[in-house]
Protein backbone atom coordinates (compact mmCIF):
# COMPACT_ATOMS: atom_id res chain seq x y z
CA UNK A 1 0.00 0.00 0.00
CA UNK A 2 1.54 3.32 -1.05
CA UNK A 3 1.50 6.26 1.29
CA UNK A 4 1.08 9.94 0.55
CA UNK A 5 2.12 13.10 2.34
CA UNK A 6 -0.86 15.29 3.01
CA UNK A 7 -1.98 18.42 4.78
CA UNK A 8 -5.31 18.48 6.60
CA UNK A 9 -6.89 21.74 7.75
CA UNK A 10 -9.53 21.63 10.47
CA UNK A 11 -11.67 24.55 11.65
CA UNK A 12 -13.69 24.05 14.82
CA UNK A 13 -16.57 26.51 15.06
CA UNK A 14 -17.82 25.48 18.51
CA UNK A 15 -14.86 24.48 20.65
CA UNK A 16 -16.85 23.40 23.70
CA UNK A 17 -19.02 21.06 21.64
CA UNK A 18 -16.57 19.67 19.10
CA UNK A 19 -13.01 19.81 20.47
CA UNK A 20 -13.22 16.68 22.66
CA UNK A 21 -14.63 14.68 19.72
CA UNK A 22 -11.95 16.00 17.35
CA UNK A 23 -9.19 15.15 19.81
CA UNK A 24 -10.58 11.63 20.24
CA UNK A 25 -10.53 11.06 16.47
CA UNK A 26 -7.01 12.50 16.16
CA UNK A 27 -5.85 10.17 18.91
CA UNK A 28 -7.38 7.19 17.07
CA UNK A 29 -5.45 8.18 13.91
CA UNK A 30 -2.33 9.31 15.76
CA UNK A 31 -0.03 6.88 13.99
CA UNK A 32 -0.66 8.74 10.70
CA UNK A 33 0.09 12.22 12.06
CA UNK A 34 3.61 13.56 11.55
CA UNK A 35 2.93 17.06 12.92
CA UNK A 36 0.04 18.95 14.48
CA UNK A 37 -0.37 22.68 15.06
CA UNK A 38 -3.33 24.23 16.84
CA UNK A 39 -4.36 27.84 17.15
CA UNK A 40 -7.27 29.15 19.20
CA UNK A 41 -8.65 32.16 17.35
CA UNK A 42 -10.61 33.66 20.22
CA UNK A 43 -11.52 36.88 18.40
CA UNK A 44 -13.54 34.80 15.91
CA UNK A 45 -14.63 32.07 18.30
CA UNK A 46 -12.79 29.43 16.26
CA UNK A 47 -9.99 26.95 16.68
CA UNK A 48 -7.77 26.04 13.74
CA UNK A 49 -5.74 22.83 13.55
CA UNK A 50 -3.32 21.87 10.79
CA UNK A 51 -2.00 18.34 10.40
CA UNK A 52 0.80 16.88 8.32
CA UNK A 53 0.08 13.21 7.67
CA UNK A 54 1.65 10.25 5.90
CA UNK A 55 -0.94 7.64 5.00
CA UNK A 56 -2.78 5.85 2.23
CA UNK A 57 -5.58 7.70 0.49
CA UNK A 58 -8.06 5.37 2.20
CA UNK A 59 -6.67 6.23 5.64
CA UNK A 60 -6.69 9.97 4.90
CA UNK A 61 -10.25 9.64 3.63
CA UNK A 62 -11.31 7.78 6.77
CA UNK A 63 -9.78 10.46 9.00
CA UNK A 64 -11.23 13.42 7.13
CA UNK A 65 -14.57 11.65 6.76
CA UNK A 66 -14.93 11.12 10.50
CA UNK A 67 -13.93 14.71 11.21
CA UNK A 68 -16.26 16.04 8.53
CA UNK A 69 -19.26 14.28 10.08
CA UNK A 70 -18.89 16.27 13.29
CA UNK A 71 -21.19 19.21 13.83
CA UNK A 72 -19.39 22.58 13.90
CA UNK A 73 -16.26 21.13 12.21
CA UNK A 74 -14.99 21.93 8.71
CA UNK A 75 -12.16 19.92 7.19
CA UNK A 76 -10.16 20.02 3.94
CA UNK A 77 -7.21 17.98 2.76
CA UNK A 78 -4.46 18.24 0.20
CA UNK A 79 -2.56 15.10 -0.83
CA UNK A 80 0.54 14.84 -3.03
CA UNK A 81 1.93 11.96 -5.07
CA UNK A 82 2.83 8.69 -3.35
CA UNK A 83 5.98 8.64 -1.25
CA UNK A 84 8.89 6.55 -2.47
TrEMBL record:
One Pfam family, short name: TM1266-like
Protein name: Transcriptional regulator
Amino acid sequence: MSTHIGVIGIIIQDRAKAAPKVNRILTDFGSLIIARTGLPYKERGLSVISLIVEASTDQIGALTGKLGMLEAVKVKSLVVKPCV
